[in-house]
Design brief:
9-stranded mixed β-sheet
Length: 386
Protein backbone atom coordinates (compact mmCIF):
# COMPACT_ATOMS: atom_id res chain seq x y z
CA UNK A 1 0.00 0.00 0.00
CA UNK A 2 2.88 2.38 0.67
CA UNK A 3 4.13 1.73 -2.85
CA UNK A 4 0.68 2.44 -4.28
CA UNK A 5 0.52 5.67 -2.34
CA UNK A 6 3.88 6.74 -3.72
CA UNK A 7 2.66 6.01 -7.25
CA UNK A 8 -0.16 8.49 -6.74
CA UNK A 9 1.99 11.35 -5.49
CA UNK A 10 3.03 12.22 -9.04
CA UNK A 11 -0.58 13.27 -9.60
CA UNK A 12 -1.31 15.04 -6.33
CA UNK A 13 0.48 16.92 -3.58
CA UNK A 14 -0.70 18.48 -0.35
CA UNK A 15 -4.41 17.74 -0.49
CA UNK A 16 -5.25 17.40 3.20
CA UNK A 17 -3.99 20.82 4.19
CA UNK A 18 -6.87 23.29 4.23
CA UNK A 19 -6.50 25.67 1.33
CA UNK A 20 -7.85 28.53 3.41
CA UNK A 21 -5.26 27.92 6.13
CA UNK A 22 -2.38 27.74 3.65
CA UNK A 23 -3.34 31.06 2.10
CA UNK A 24 -4.09 32.93 5.31
CA UNK A 25 -0.92 31.59 6.99
CA UNK A 26 1.10 33.37 4.31
CA UNK A 27 -0.63 36.66 5.09
CA UNK A 28 -2.97 36.79 2.08
CA UNK A 29 -6.68 37.49 2.10
CA UNK A 30 -8.71 34.45 1.07
CA UNK A 31 -12.33 33.88 0.12
CA UNK A 32 -14.24 30.62 -0.26
CA UNK A 33 -16.93 30.36 -2.94
CA UNK A 34 -19.32 27.69 -4.13
CA UNK A 35 -21.15 27.09 -7.38
CA UNK A 36 -23.41 24.29 -8.59
CA UNK A 37 -23.06 22.61 -11.96
CA UNK A 38 -26.03 22.03 -14.24
CA UNK A 39 -25.95 18.35 -13.22
CA UNK A 40 -25.96 19.08 -9.50
CA UNK A 41 -22.34 18.90 -8.28
CA UNK A 42 -21.38 21.47 -5.65
CA UNK A 43 -17.92 22.87 -6.41
CA UNK A 44 -15.73 24.88 -4.05
CA UNK A 45 -13.36 27.56 -5.29
CA UNK A 46 -10.87 29.67 -3.41
CA UNK A 47 -10.00 33.24 -4.27
CA UNK A 48 -7.03 35.42 -3.42
CA UNK A 49 -8.77 38.71 -4.20
CA UNK A 50 -7.44 42.02 -5.30
CA UNK A 51 -6.05 44.77 -3.15
CA UNK A 52 -8.84 46.60 -1.29
CA UNK A 53 -10.07 49.50 -3.38
CA UNK A 54 -8.74 48.03 -6.63
CA UNK A 55 -11.69 46.48 -8.43
CA UNK A 56 -10.10 46.06 -11.85
CA UNK A 57 -7.48 43.38 -11.34
CA UNK A 58 -7.39 40.86 -14.21
CA UNK A 59 -8.66 37.39 -13.30
CA UNK A 60 -6.46 34.28 -13.41
CA UNK A 61 -8.04 30.85 -12.97
CA UNK A 62 -5.84 27.88 -11.94
CA UNK A 63 -7.06 24.29 -12.41
CA UNK A 64 -5.35 21.27 -10.85
CA UNK A 65 -4.52 17.86 -12.28
CA UNK A 66 -5.79 14.33 -11.69
CA UNK A 67 -6.30 13.29 -8.03
CA UNK A 68 -5.35 16.79 -6.94
CA UNK A 69 -6.95 19.94 -5.58
CA UNK A 70 -6.48 23.68 -5.33
CA UNK A 71 -3.77 23.02 -2.74
CA UNK A 72 -1.31 22.07 -5.48
CA UNK A 73 -0.91 25.70 -6.44
CA UNK A 74 0.05 26.68 -2.86
CA UNK A 75 2.33 24.05 -1.30
CA UNK A 76 5.59 25.66 -2.40
CA UNK A 77 4.71 28.66 -0.24
CA UNK A 78 4.74 32.42 -0.74
CA UNK A 79 7.32 33.63 -3.21
CA UNK A 80 7.43 30.23 -4.93
CA UNK A 81 3.92 28.87 -5.61
CA UNK A 82 2.19 30.03 -8.77
CA UNK A 83 -0.97 31.24 -7.01
CA UNK A 84 0.98 33.49 -4.66
CA UNK A 85 3.22 34.75 -7.46
CA UNK A 86 0.18 35.76 -9.50
CA UNK A 87 -1.31 37.53 -6.46
CA UNK A 88 1.97 39.36 -5.90
CA UNK A 89 1.93 40.43 -9.56
CA UNK A 90 -1.45 42.10 -9.10
CA UNK A 91 -3.92 39.48 -10.31
CA UNK A 92 -7.24 38.30 -8.90
CA UNK A 93 -6.50 34.60 -8.42
CA UNK A 94 -9.16 31.85 -8.47
CA UNK A 95 -8.39 28.23 -7.61
CA UNK A 96 -10.79 25.62 -8.98
CA UNK A 97 -11.69 22.19 -7.62
CA UNK A 98 -13.12 19.45 -9.84
CA UNK A 99 -16.02 17.25 -8.74
CA UNK A 100 -15.13 14.41 -6.41
CA UNK A 101 -12.04 15.92 -4.83
CA UNK A 102 -11.60 16.94 -1.18
CA UNK A 103 -13.23 20.35 -1.65
CA UNK A 104 -15.95 19.39 -4.15
CA UNK A 105 -17.33 16.21 -2.65
CA UNK A 106 -21.00 17.21 -2.60
CA UNK A 107 -24.08 17.01 -4.79
CA UNK A 108 -27.56 18.48 -4.46
CA UNK A 109 -29.10 14.99 -4.36
CA UNK A 110 -26.37 12.32 -4.27
CA UNK A 111 -24.23 11.13 -1.36
CA UNK A 112 -20.70 10.15 -2.48
CA UNK A 113 -20.49 7.60 0.36
CA UNK A 114 -23.69 5.80 -0.62
CA UNK A 115 -24.63 6.62 -4.19
CA UNK A 116 -22.51 5.02 -6.90
CA UNK A 117 -24.06 7.42 -9.39
CA UNK A 118 -22.10 10.26 -7.78
CA UNK A 119 -18.88 8.73 -9.17
CA UNK A 120 -20.22 8.11 -12.67
CA UNK A 121 -18.08 10.75 -14.34
CA UNK A 122 -14.72 11.19 -16.06
CA UNK A 123 -12.78 14.29 -17.01
CA UNK A 124 -15.29 14.62 -19.85
CA UNK A 125 -17.93 15.83 -17.37
CA UNK A 126 -15.37 18.02 -15.61
CA UNK A 127 -14.76 19.82 -18.90
CA UNK A 128 -18.39 19.82 -19.99
CA UNK A 129 -19.93 20.98 -16.69
CA UNK A 130 -17.42 21.87 -13.96
CA UNK A 131 -15.15 24.29 -15.79
CA UNK A 132 -18.01 26.25 -17.39
CA UNK A 133 -19.74 26.58 -14.01
CA UNK A 134 -16.57 27.81 -12.29
CA UNK A 135 -15.54 30.15 -15.12
CA UNK A 136 -19.01 31.71 -15.25
CA UNK A 137 -19.09 32.16 -11.48
CA UNK A 138 -15.66 33.81 -11.31
CA UNK A 139 -16.57 36.19 -14.13
CA UNK A 140 -19.91 37.03 -12.53
CA UNK A 141 -18.35 37.84 -9.15
CA UNK A 142 -15.53 39.91 -10.63
CA UNK A 143 -17.57 41.63 -13.32
CA UNK A 144 -14.98 40.68 -15.96
CA UNK A 145 -15.89 39.38 -19.40
CA UNK A 146 -12.92 36.99 -19.77
CA UNK A 147 -10.10 35.48 -17.73
CA UNK A 148 -6.67 33.89 -18.05
CA UNK A 149 -6.63 30.11 -17.58
CA UNK A 150 -3.68 28.02 -16.39
CA UNK A 151 -4.11 24.27 -16.08
CA UNK A 152 -1.87 21.37 -15.19
CA UNK A 153 -2.27 17.87 -16.68
CA UNK A 154 -5.98 16.97 -16.30
CA UNK A 155 -6.64 20.69 -15.90
CA UNK A 156 -5.58 20.98 -19.54
CA UNK A 157 -7.55 17.92 -20.68
CA UNK A 158 -10.77 19.31 -19.23
CA UNK A 159 -10.11 22.69 -20.83
CA UNK A 160 -9.85 21.12 -24.28
CA UNK A 161 -13.11 19.27 -23.63
CA UNK A 162 -14.85 22.51 -22.64
CA UNK A 163 -13.66 24.67 -25.50
CA UNK A 164 -14.13 21.99 -28.18
CA UNK A 165 -17.64 20.90 -27.14
CA UNK A 166 -18.82 24.25 -25.78
CA UNK A 167 -16.99 26.61 -28.13
CA UNK A 168 -18.83 29.68 -26.80
CA UNK A 169 -16.42 29.51 -23.84
CA UNK A 170 -13.47 30.36 -26.09
CA UNK A 171 -14.65 33.95 -25.95
CA UNK A 172 -14.34 33.95 -22.16
CA UNK A 173 -10.63 33.04 -22.24
CA UNK A 174 -8.05 35.78 -22.75
CA UNK A 175 -5.22 33.26 -22.75
CA UNK A 176 -4.77 29.61 -21.86
CA UNK A 177 -1.45 28.17 -20.70
CA UNK A 178 -1.25 24.39 -20.54
CA UNK A 179 1.37 22.98 -18.17
CA UNK A 180 2.18 19.38 -19.13
CA UNK A 181 -0.74 19.24 -21.62
CA UNK A 182 -2.53 15.91 -21.75
CA UNK A 183 -4.83 15.03 -24.64
CA UNK A 184 -3.13 12.47 -26.89
CA UNK A 185 -1.31 9.79 -24.90
CA UNK A 186 -0.27 7.20 -27.48
CA UNK A 187 3.45 7.79 -26.86
CA UNK A 188 3.31 7.87 -23.07
CA UNK A 189 6.52 6.40 -21.60
CA UNK A 190 5.59 5.63 -17.99
CA UNK A 191 6.20 1.87 -17.60
CA UNK A 192 3.57 1.52 -14.87
CA UNK A 193 0.78 2.99 -16.98
CA UNK A 194 1.97 1.20 -20.10
CA UNK A 195 1.60 -2.12 -18.28
CA UNK A 196 -1.78 -1.32 -16.74
CA UNK A 197 -3.50 0.30 -19.74
CA UNK A 198 -4.14 -2.92 -21.74
CA UNK A 199 -6.03 -4.37 -18.77
CA UNK A 200 -8.22 -1.32 -18.21
CA UNK A 201 -11.50 -3.03 -19.09
CA UNK A 202 -10.90 -5.81 -16.57
CA UNK A 203 -9.93 -3.27 -13.91
CA UNK A 204 -13.07 -1.27 -14.60
CA UNK A 205 -15.25 -4.38 -14.37
CA UNK A 206 -13.68 -5.53 -11.08
CA UNK A 207 -13.97 -2.14 -9.40
CA UNK A 208 -17.55 -1.81 -10.62
CA UNK A 209 -18.47 -5.19 -9.16
CA UNK A 210 -16.88 -4.24 -5.84
CA UNK A 211 -18.58 -0.88 -5.77
CA UNK A 212 -15.19 0.84 -5.66
CA UNK A 213 -16.09 3.78 -7.87
CA UNK A 214 -13.89 6.27 -6.02
CA UNK A 215 -10.20 5.84 -6.68
CA UNK A 216 -8.31 5.35 -3.40
CA UNK A 217 -10.07 7.71 -0.97
CA UNK A 218 -8.22 9.25 1.96
CA UNK A 219 -6.56 6.93 4.45
CA UNK A 220 -4.68 8.25 7.49
CA UNK A 221 -2.74 5.00 7.91
CA UNK A 222 -1.16 5.44 4.48
CA UNK A 223 -0.16 8.96 5.43
CA UNK A 224 1.51 7.69 8.59
CA UNK A 225 3.36 5.06 6.60
CA UNK A 226 4.62 7.66 4.17
CA UNK A 227 6.00 9.72 7.03
CA UNK A 228 7.81 6.73 8.51
CA UNK A 229 9.31 5.12 5.43
CA UNK A 230 10.10 8.16 3.28
CA UNK A 231 11.97 10.41 5.70
CA UNK A 232 15.11 11.82 4.10
CA UNK A 233 17.11 9.80 6.66
CA UNK A 234 15.28 6.57 5.82
CA UNK A 235 17.24 3.83 4.01
CA UNK A 236 14.36 3.51 1.52
CA UNK A 237 13.94 7.22 0.75
CA UNK A 238 15.45 6.71 -2.69
CA UNK A 239 12.88 4.00 -3.37
CA UNK A 240 10.18 6.58 -2.69
CA UNK A 241 11.86 9.08 -4.99
CA UNK A 242 12.60 6.60 -7.78
CA UNK A 243 9.03 5.32 -7.79
CA UNK A 244 7.89 8.88 -8.49
CA UNK A 245 10.46 9.18 -11.26
CA UNK A 246 9.36 5.93 -12.89
CA UNK A 247 5.92 7.44 -13.44
CA UNK A 248 6.66 11.02 -14.40
CA UNK A 249 10.31 10.95 -15.53
CA UNK A 250 13.65 11.22 -13.74
CA UNK A 251 14.83 14.61 -12.48
CA UNK A 252 16.51 13.97 -9.16
CA UNK A 253 17.90 17.49 -8.74
CA UNK A 254 14.42 19.04 -8.66
CA UNK A 255 13.02 16.80 -5.89
CA UNK A 256 13.72 17.84 -2.30
CA UNK A 257 13.93 14.54 -0.36
CA UNK A 258 13.09 16.24 2.93
CA UNK A 259 9.69 17.14 1.45
CA UNK A 260 8.72 13.54 0.73
CA UNK A 261 7.13 12.87 4.16
CA UNK A 262 5.01 16.01 3.77
CA UNK A 263 3.99 14.96 0.29
CA UNK A 264 3.04 11.45 1.39
CA UNK A 265 1.22 12.75 4.44
CA UNK A 266 -1.39 14.14 2.08
CA UNK A 267 -3.69 11.55 0.65
CA UNK A 268 -5.09 11.75 -2.92
CA UNK A 269 -7.77 14.42 -3.12
CA UNK A 270 -10.27 12.09 -4.75
CA UNK A 271 -11.22 10.99 -8.24
CA UNK A 272 -13.51 8.51 -9.90
CA UNK A 273 -12.21 5.26 -11.34
CA UNK A 274 -13.81 6.38 -14.59
CA UNK A 275 -11.36 9.30 -14.88
CA UNK A 276 -8.40 6.93 -14.94
CA UNK A 277 -10.19 4.47 -17.22
CA UNK A 278 -10.88 7.24 -19.72
CA UNK A 279 -7.17 8.12 -19.82
CA UNK A 280 -6.30 4.44 -20.25
CA UNK A 281 -8.63 4.18 -23.24
CA UNK A 282 -6.82 7.08 -24.88
CA UNK A 283 -3.44 5.51 -24.13
CA UNK A 284 -4.56 2.35 -25.91
CA UNK A 285 -6.13 4.12 -28.88
CA UNK A 286 -3.61 6.93 -29.31
CA UNK A 287 -6.60 9.22 -29.92
CA UNK A 288 -8.31 11.99 -27.95
CA UNK A 289 -11.86 10.65 -27.78
CA UNK A 290 -14.91 10.62 -25.57
CA UNK A 291 -15.40 7.71 -23.16
CA UNK A 292 -15.40 4.25 -24.77
CA UNK A 293 -18.35 2.18 -23.51
CA UNK A 294 -17.70 -0.69 -25.94
CA UNK A 295 -18.98 -0.92 -29.48
CA UNK A 296 -22.58 -1.83 -28.60
CA UNK A 297 -23.15 0.99 -26.09
CA UNK A 298 -21.16 3.35 -28.29
CA UNK A 299 -23.69 2.74 -31.04
CA UNK A 300 -26.50 3.61 -28.65
CA UNK A 301 -24.83 6.67 -27.13
CA UNK A 302 -22.88 8.07 -30.07
CA UNK A 303 -24.36 6.42 -33.14
CA UNK A 304 -20.98 4.94 -34.04
CA UNK A 305 -18.82 2.00 -32.99
CA UNK A 306 -16.01 4.28 -31.86
CA UNK A 307 -16.52 7.23 -29.51
CA UNK A 308 -16.24 10.60 -31.28
CA UNK A 309 -13.00 12.54 -31.29
CA UNK A 310 -12.93 15.91 -29.57
CA UNK A 311 -13.01 18.59 -32.31
CA UNK A 312 -9.87 20.45 -31.27
CA UNK A 313 -10.09 22.77 -34.27
CA UNK A 314 -12.96 24.45 -32.39
CA UNK A 315 -10.56 25.49 -29.61
CA UNK A 316 -10.08 29.09 -30.76
CA UNK A 317 -8.92 30.60 -27.46
CA UNK A 318 -5.20 31.48 -27.65
CA UNK A 319 -3.31 28.45 -26.29
CA UNK A 320 0.32 28.13 -25.22
CA UNK A 321 1.69 24.67 -24.46
CA UNK A 322 4.49 24.30 -21.89
CA UNK A 323 6.09 20.86 -21.95
CA UNK A 324 8.97 19.00 -20.32
CA UNK A 325 11.38 17.08 -22.52
CA UNK A 326 11.55 14.35 -19.86
CA UNK A 327 7.82 14.15 -19.10
CA UNK A 328 6.83 10.47 -19.28
CA UNK A 329 3.10 11.25 -19.13
CA UNK A 330 2.92 14.08 -21.66
CA UNK A 331 5.33 12.86 -24.33
CA UNK A 332 6.87 15.40 -26.70
CA UNK A 333 5.39 13.74 -29.80
CA UNK A 334 1.92 13.75 -28.22
CA UNK A 335 2.24 17.42 -27.30
CA UNK A 336 3.22 18.25 -30.88
CA UNK A 337 0.26 16.24 -32.18
CA UNK A 338 -2.01 18.27 -29.94
CA UNK A 339 -0.38 21.46 -31.21
CA UNK A 340 -1.22 20.54 -34.81
CA UNK A 341 -4.87 19.90 -33.96
CA UNK A 342 -5.63 23.07 -32.00
CA UNK A 343 -7.54 25.89 -33.67
CA UNK A 344 -5.45 28.73 -32.24
CA UNK A 345 -2.02 27.61 -31.10
CA UNK A 346 0.13 30.58 -30.11
CA UNK A 347 3.30 28.81 -29.02
CA UNK A 348 4.74 25.50 -27.90
CA UNK A 349 7.36 26.09 -25.22
CA UNK A 350 9.81 23.59 -23.70
CA UNK A 351 10.93 24.18 -20.13
CA UNK A 352 14.63 25.11 -20.16
CA UNK A 353 15.65 22.18 -17.92
CA UNK A 354 15.90 19.24 -20.33
CA UNK A 355 15.24 16.81 -17.44
CA UNK A 356 11.92 18.48 -16.55
CA UNK A 357 9.26 15.86 -15.77
CA UNK A 358 5.51 15.76 -15.10
CA UNK A 359 5.88 16.27 -11.36
CA UNK A 360 8.17 19.27 -11.77
CA UNK A 361 5.39 21.51 -13.10
CA UNK A 362 3.89 21.75 -9.62
CA UNK A 363 6.69 20.76 -7.24
CA UNK A 364 10.12 21.48 -8.69
CA UNK A 365 12.70 23.33 -6.63
CA UNK A 366 13.24 25.69 -9.58
CA UNK A 367 9.62 25.97 -10.73
CA UNK A 368 9.59 29.72 -10.20
CA UNK A 369 12.64 30.56 -12.29
CA UNK A 370 12.24 27.78 -14.88
CA UNK A 371 8.51 28.18 -15.54
CA UNK A 372 6.28 30.38 -13.37
CA UNK A 373 7.98 33.68 -14.16
CA UNK A 374 7.51 32.97 -17.87
CA UNK A 375 3.84 32.04 -17.32
CA UNK A 376 3.19 35.33 -15.53
CA UNK A 377 5.12 37.31 -18.15
CA UNK A 378 2.95 35.82 -20.91
CA UNK A 379 -0.24 36.80 -19.09
CA UNK A 380 1.12 40.32 -18.68
CA UNK A 381 1.81 40.50 -22.42
CA UNK A 382 -1.84 39.69 -23.10
CA UNK A 383 -2.95 42.32 -20.61
CA UNK A 384 -0.82 44.93 -22.36
CA UNK A 385 -2.65 44.14 -25.61
CA UNK A 386 -6.03 45.05 -24.14
Amino acid sequence: MILLRILLVVFCIGTTFATVDLISAEGYTVEQHETVTSDGYVLTMFRIPGTPGNSSRPVVFLQHGLLCSSTDWLVLGAGHSLAFLFADAGYDVWLGNARGNTHSRRHVALDPARDETFWDFSWHQIGLYDLPAMVDYALQVTGESALHYVGHSQGTTAFFVMTSLRPEYNGKIRSMQALAPVAFMGHLQSPFLRVLAPFVDQIEWITGMLGANEFLPSNSMLALGGQKFCQDTSPVVELCANTLFLIGGFNSAQLNRSSLPVILENTPAGASVKQLVHYAHNINSGSFRQFDYGWALNLVRYGSILPPKYPLDRVTAPVLLHYGENDWLAAISDVHLLARELGNLVAILPVSDRKWNHLDFTYAVDAKIRLYEKVIDIVEQYENLT
